[in-house]
Design brief:
Elements: E1 18-19, E2 27-29, E3 42-43, E4 49-51, E5 64-69, H1 80-86, H2 91-110, E6 132-139, E7 142-149, E8 153-162, H3 170-174, H4 177-189, H5 195-214, E9 223-228, E10 233-238, H6 242-245, E11 248-249, E12 252-260, E13 263-271, E14 276-277, H7 281-291
Antiparallel strand pairs: 1-2, 2-5, 3-4, 5-7, 6-7, 8-13, 9-10, 10-12, 11-14, 12-13
The protein binds coenzyme A.
The site of coenzyme A has 22 residues, from helix 2, strand 6 and helix 5.
Length: 292
Amino acid sequence: MPSTASSAPERPRPWPRTCKPDNGVTLIEEARDGSDPGAPLRSGQNGAMWECDGFADLLPSSVEVVQVDGDCGVLQPAWPEEAVSVESAVLRRQVEFVTTRECARRALQRLGFSPGPIPVGTHREPVWPRDVVGSLTHGADLHAAAVALKPQYRAVGIDAEPNTGLPEGTLDLIGSTAERLALVSLESSWPAVAWDRLLFSAKEAIFKVWFPLTGHWLDYRECTLSIDPVTGTFTGRLLLDGESRSRFRISSIEGRWGISGNRLLTAVALPEQATQYRRSRVARAARASSTA
Ligand SMILES: CC(C)(COP(=O)(O)OP(=O)(O)OC[C@H]1O[C@@H](n2cnc3c(N)ncnc32)[C@H](O)[C@@H]1OP(=O)(O)O)[C@@H](O)C(=O)NCCC(=O)NCCS
């Protein structure tokens, strides 16, 4: 039985850029230039900053990222805790599930964890080792995992989408009038980017940060997104009462985006200092009664 991934993290030796694990999968370890957060993106048209090589360009170097183009081929989940989640799934789903979790185990290993299962939580969220936050994505023929250590990071969220427009009608469901107007302006200046898809992707990356922090659903309309085409960043302003749903105060979540080939990538790494613990109601009540 493999050991679980819960031992105290110890910095491992650096991995080679490209490594071939026992199962024959070639995982591309993304290049790092040591800058933080992420490497500066290359300029696109009109001075916009959007070209990147992968998620590692969008995230701080203390967030470990492993991504693979294509997939692992047909493999069975290595752990029963994982297998139970996909045993009746179609082959394609099994392949994406295994490939993404292989990426995650690789990334966790770089944080010092030995291989272990990453089960599926009750709301489909990946269940990480206790001291870890992380996120998975599979889309646009890409599989990726990003993981980081608590408490340095509160949450990580990544999402990959094809750089193609959303199906008709979708934008009306996920974007406000103000967001849609902003996209019109972006589209006229930078038509090479599928801005509606980028809006969607950024909101999904935000959700992957929001949910593990709060345990609550977040609707697309409960977050207003603004995208900066020049800095390659985005900000999601949360329209709901985040305080009532979380141990943390969160009113906005910032992330970075880029284009890698024909894919749009969005990533959020929420550092500890971006969130504050809110005072518990019990503590507030106690303080109020002691001063009364
Ligand atoms: C969960 C969701 C974000 C996944 O995004 P997606 O583009 O469909 O798929 P991706 O490949 O990028 O990501 C899938 C991974 O997300 C992760 N995920 C699923 N539910 C999650 C949750 N509640 N919290 C965190 N991560 C979750 C899983 O790891 C999943 O992969 P797996 O099933 O193989 O383990 C999306 O399906 C969804 O339900 N969105 C609605 C909520 C939302 O985005 N609101 C916007 C708020 S502004």
